[in-house]
């Protein structure tokens, strides 16, 4: 599990100060991308780690693409905060809450989570790979995008599973079975009588 609780924090990907400025985004992105590309070129086992490197490049591109635009960055941070708030609302339901209300909260949260992960861990990441500045600094090309599509879907699904593993679900109570009634019914059948 990642330390961002599964809700990718692109500010952390770029190690940005809080609050950050667009200049911080550009400077950090260029520095981190350069370091990563040097690491890839110097690593003789880079081919074996191709998927990991593609994911790292894609995440750096997405962080740069989303956060350098103030409006896009604000929408991202609001969506992230909303998903976290919905999870807390669901977790905070008191014992004895009507199951329908708890289920309603769970459904709202789950839909917001799916939307957030689809948008910010797949759609914007692929969009960033087509951005001219990202292409220039990362060397991203259509071949990378073809390979990355599958990797991004897997990563998004893995994040979704990790998040769901830690979430509260309804306690499943054991069924109440009237064993004596069943035994009586079975005896009646075996004797050849018609059960009532």
In short:
Helices cover 71% and strands 0% of the residues. With 196 residues, the chain is mainly α. Helix 2 runs antiparallel to helix 3 and helix 5 packs antiparallel against helix 7.
Straight-line distance between termini: 56 Å
Number of domains: 1
Shape: elongated
Q: Helicity range of the residues?
A: over 70%
Written as H for each helix and E for each strand, in order along the chain, the element string is: HHHHHHHH
Category by helix and strand content:
mainly alpha
> Which regions contain 5 or more consecutive residues with pLDDT less than 50?
none
How much is the average pLDDT?
86
How many beta-strand elements? Answer: 0
What about the largest sheet? none
Number of helices in the DSSP assignment: 8
> What integer value in Å does the Rg equal?
25 Å
Strand content: under 5%
Walk me through the structure:
The protein is mainly alpha-helical. It has one domain. Helix content is 71%, strand content 0%. The chain is built from 8 helices and no strands. α3 crosses α7. The longest helix is centred in the middle third of the chain and has 30 residues. The protein is elongated and about 85 Å long. The N and C termini lie far apart (56 Å). The mean pLDDT is 86.
Task: Provide the fold topology.
Blueprint lengths: L9 H4 L8 H21 L7 H19 L1 H22 L7 H30 L3 H7 L3 H24 L13 H13 L5
Helix pairs in contact: 2-3, 3-5, 3-7, 4-5, 5-7
């Amino acid at each position: 599990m990642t330390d961002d609780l599964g809700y990718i924090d692109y500010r952390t990907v770029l190690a940005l100060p809080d609050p950050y400025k667009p200049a911080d985004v550009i400077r950090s992105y260029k520095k981190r991308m350069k370091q990563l590309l040097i690491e890839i070129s110097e690593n003789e086992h880079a081919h074996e780690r191709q998927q990991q490197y593609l994911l790292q490049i894609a995440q750096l591109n997405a962080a740069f693409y989303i956060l350098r635009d103030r409006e896009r960055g604000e929408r991202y941070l609001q969506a992230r905060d909303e998903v976290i708030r919905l999870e807390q609302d669901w977790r905070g339901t008191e014992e004895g809450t009507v199951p329908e209300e708890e289920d309603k909260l769970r459904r709202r949260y789950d839909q917001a989570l799916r939307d957030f992960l689809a948008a910010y861990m797949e759609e914007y990441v692929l969009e960033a790979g087509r951005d001219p500045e990202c292409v220039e600094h990362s060397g991203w090309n259509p071949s990378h995008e073809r390979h990355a599509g599958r990797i991004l879907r897997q990563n998004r699904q893995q994040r979704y599973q990790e998040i769901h593993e830690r979430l509260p679900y309804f306690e499943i109570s054991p069924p109440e079975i009237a064993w004596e009634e069943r035994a009586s019914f079975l005896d009646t059948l075996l004797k050849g009588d018609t059960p009532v």
